[in-house]
Design a protein that fits this description.
The structure is a single chain. This protein has 316 residues and is an alpha+beta fold. The chain has eleven helices and 13 strands. The longest helix is centred in the last third of the chain and has 15 residues.
Amino acid sequence: MPRCYVIVQKSLVSRRPFPIMMGAIMLPDQLLGFYPVEFCPLYVGAPAFYSDMSPPVGGGFVDPIGLNTPPPEPKPTLPSPIVQAFQATAANATGYDNGTLLTNISAPADSSRNSSAGALGERLMQLQPLQVTAKPAYVVPLKSMAGISSSFITNMYQPGGELTRQLTGTEALKFWNQITFEGGLYAFADGGTVDNLAITPLLRRRVPKLIMCVAASANVSAAASPADWGGFQWDVSSLFGAAPPTHASYNENNTVVGIPIDLFNRKLQVFPTEGYDELFYAVRNATATGGPTHYLANYTVLTNPFQAVFGGWQVE
């Protein structure tokens, strides 16, 4: 299903909503497999810089018309503030630790300005006033971006060649990173492999109040335990790092879309683990009473370098 979520953008005129669609760059040779990418009317890109592969992926955003272009020539000189905004951390065998853009990590967590999507967007634009010349192979239409965010068949089959990409309807686009300006032709897949509920784009922007809707794949009332439901509903439990180590719903070798479950938890966790059991019992009790299945909670956001989410603040 398309992952379209509306946040508030502050402008000089008014507050206006815009959608964000989650997709994934598919790299089957990497242990983590899928890497987040955002599509919206303002920009397209991968929020973190994944430096443990060649060429690296991500590190920023481009105007939507800059998607599906070859790397810019001549290669531009990266402004020193952007270089200084990255911290180099040694990539380990899993590729989980990478250099990440430190645009908002030093911002006071209780500042209303830094909690607004508009303020963060303004700071990003001020930090990256970089212009390049690039010509798209073709302009990627909105329907293709929406299709990428819904291409679950790509996640299941992970096509590697041109023929299998065509048979599965997998979109292959030219894409380059915004740090070393290297790139190539990449296959794009459903965003469910990196965040099925599309909550991380909002946390990246420090949106303080969220509504998260879950189309449950398993009846919470019939679940024997939090772990039982968490195995079926790994898109929820993994946000708390609480997807169980083994479950009947997993693929062979206890993987989700080919990713070992311990890495999948690390890849997704943005909330404290203890919050998951509380959520499970609250939702199950609400369901048992016959009323709306909902739960209002406050969580401390945890830093997750893979998702380019910076923690230390409260979200409702």
